[in-house]
Automatic annotation (TrEMBL), chain A:
This is Succinate dehydrogenase cytochrome b556 subunit. It comes from Sedimenticola selenatireducens. Heme binds at residue 81. GO terms for biological process: tricarboxylic acid cycle. The keyword Hydrolase does not apply. The heme is bound between the two transmembrane subunits. It is a multi-pass membrane protein. Its main location: membrane.
UniProtKB/TrEMBL annotation, chain B:
Its cofactor is [2Fe-2S] cluster; [4Fe-4S] cluster; [3Fe-4S] cluster. InterPro entries: 2Fe-2S_ferredoxin-like_sf, 4Fe4S_Fe-S-bd, 4Fe4S_Fe_S_CS, Beta-grasp_dom_sf, Helical_ferredxn, SDH/FRD_Iron-Sulfur, Succ_DH/fum_Rdtase_Fe-S, Succ_DH/fum_Rdtase_N. It comes from Sedimenticola selenatireducens. This is Succinate dehydrogenase iron-sulfur subunit. It holds the Pfam family Fer2_3.
C-alpha cells in the first residue's frame, strides 16, 4: 500500500511538550544565542582594553538600559546552558534518568537559571 | 463530553479536518470506549484497537497533544474538549490510522531476536535469576509507538534514527546473557544517526504507557560501547 502524498500530523503548536523537552529546547537556543553574542562581547572587551577613552566609551555603552537587558539575557542563556549541561552530563552517568527525577531536575534548571541571573545581575 | 476528532478520508478529502462529536460519559469509560461510541454514531470513522487492556498496543493516539493508549486512559482524566489526533509524524492512512512501516523497519534493523553462536544445548539455555532480572523494564514493550512518534529526533530522521522503541529493544538483546552477538550489535549502532541522534529530550519516557525508560537503555548502550572501545 502506498502512503505517499498522505497528510502527516506534526503540528508543534498542538503537541504538548513536557517540561524536560522545553528545557532541552532552551539548551539549544541558549547555545546559539551565546555564539551570536560572541562578536559583540569580543568587541566590547577589545574596546575596553584600547585605552582610557575606550574604557570610558564601554562604560557609557553598558549604562544603556537596552544593553543591560541584552547582557541579562546572555547571562540567563549562559546559566541555563551550564545548568542544563550538567543535568545532561549526570543523565549520561545514569543519574536522574528516572521519569520523576528528570522532570524535577528540568523544572529546577528552568527556575534556577533566571533566578541566578537576576542575583548575579544585582551583584554586578 | 465534547470530542474533536481528526478526520481524513483519502477518497473524499483533500485535507484533514477536525470533526466534533458528543459522547455521553459512562462510569469507568476509557478513551477507547469513547472512540467506539463515536464509531457507533458515525461508521465512517476509522481507528485501530484490539485487546482493550494495554497489551496489544494498537490504539495509541495523540489526545490533547500527548501520545497515549486509548484503552488505558480514563476519559475523566482528559480536559474537555478532547482533541484526538493520529500519532505525530506518521503518514495518515485514514482518520486515526497511520502507516507505521518505518517504525517497524527500525525495529527489524536492531535484530530483535537472540543470536546464539555456540551449538544449541539439548534443552533450554539456562539463565540465572539475576541475569533474568536485567530484562525487566525492557521486555514489556508492546510496540504501540507512543515513544518514537513523540521523539523530535525520530520526527526529523525516521529513516536514519532507530528511535526509542527500537533502541530499547536493541538494549534488551544486548543485556540478555543468552545473546552472543554483542560486538556485531554494537558495530551496527555506530555512526551519527542510528543511536547518537538521541539528544536526551526524554519525551519517550514521558509518553510510554508501560512506564518503560528508553533513555536509560540508550545510556546503557553508550556505556557498553565505551567499555568495548577501551
Amino acid at each position: 500500500m502506498t502512503t505517499k502524498n498522505r497528510p502527516v500530523y506534526l503540528d508543534l503548536k498542538q503537541f504538548r511538550f513536557p517540561i524536560a523537552a522545553i528545557m532541552s529546547v532552551g539548551h539549544r537556543a541558549s547555545g546559539v544565542l551565546m555564539i551570536l553574542a560572541i562578536p559583540f562581547l569580543a568587541y566590547i572587551l577589545d574596546l575596553s582594553l584600547a585605552g582610557p577613552d575606550g574604557f570610558a566609551a564601554v562604560k557609557t555603552i553598558l549604562d544603556s538600559l537596552f544593553i543591560k537587558l541584552v547582557l541579562f539575557v546572555v547571562l540567563w542563556a549562559m546559566l541555563h546552558h551550564l545548568l542544563a549541561g550538567i543535568r545532561f552530563l549526570l543523565i549520561d552517568f545514569h543519574m536522574g534518568v528516572e521519569k520523576e527525577i528528570a522532570t524535577k531536575s528540568a523544572q529546577a534548571v528552568m527556575v534556577a537559571a533566571p533566578v541566578l541571573a537576576v542575583l548575579i545581575g544585582l551583584i554586578l | 463530553m465534547k470530542f474533536f476528532v481528526y478526520r481524513y478520508n483519502p477518497d473524499v478529502d483533500t485535507a484533514p479536518h477536525m470533526q466534533e462529536y458528543d459522547v455521553e460519559v459512562t462510569r469507568g469509560m476509557m478513551l477507547r470506549d469513547a472512540l467506539m461510541e463515536i464509531k457507533r454514531q458515525d461508521e465512517s470513522f476509522a481507528f485501530r484497537h484490539s485487546c482493550g487492556e494495554g497489551v496489544c498496543g494498537s490504539d495509541a493516539v495523540n489526545a490533547n497533544g500527548k501520545n497515549m493508549l486509548g484503552c488505558t486512559t480514563p476519559v475523566v482524566e482528559l480536559k474537555e474538549p478532547v482533541n484526538v489526533r493520529p500519532l505525530p509524524g506518521r503518514p495518515v492512512i485514514r482518520d486515526l490510522v497511520v502507516d507505521m512501516s518505518q517504525f517497524y523497519q527500525q525495529y527489524r534493523a536492531v535484530k530483535p531476536y537472540l543470536i546464539h553462536k555456540d551449538p544449541l544445548p539439548e534443552q533450554e539455555i539456562l539463565q540465572s535469576p539475576e541475569d533474568r532480572d536485567k530484562l525487566d523494564g525492557l521486555y514489556e514493550c508492546i510496540m504501540c509507538g507512543c515513544c518514537s512518534t513523540s521523539c523530535p529526533s525520530f520526527w526529523w530522521n525516521p529513516d536514519k534514527f532507530h528511535g526509542p522503541q527500537a533502541l530499547l529493544q536493541a538494549w534488551r538483546f544486548l543485556a540478555d546473557s543468552r545473546d552472543q552477538a554483542t560486538e556485531e550489535r554494537l558495530d551496527d549502532l555506530e555512526g551519527p544517526y542510528k543511536l547518537f541522534r538521541c539528544h536526551t529530550i526524554m519525551n519517550c519516557v514521558e509518553s510510554c504507557p508501560k512506564s518503560l525508560n528508553p533513555t536509560k537503555a540508550i545510556g546503557k548502550i553508550k556505556e557498553l560501547m565505551l567499555k568495548h572501545s577501551i
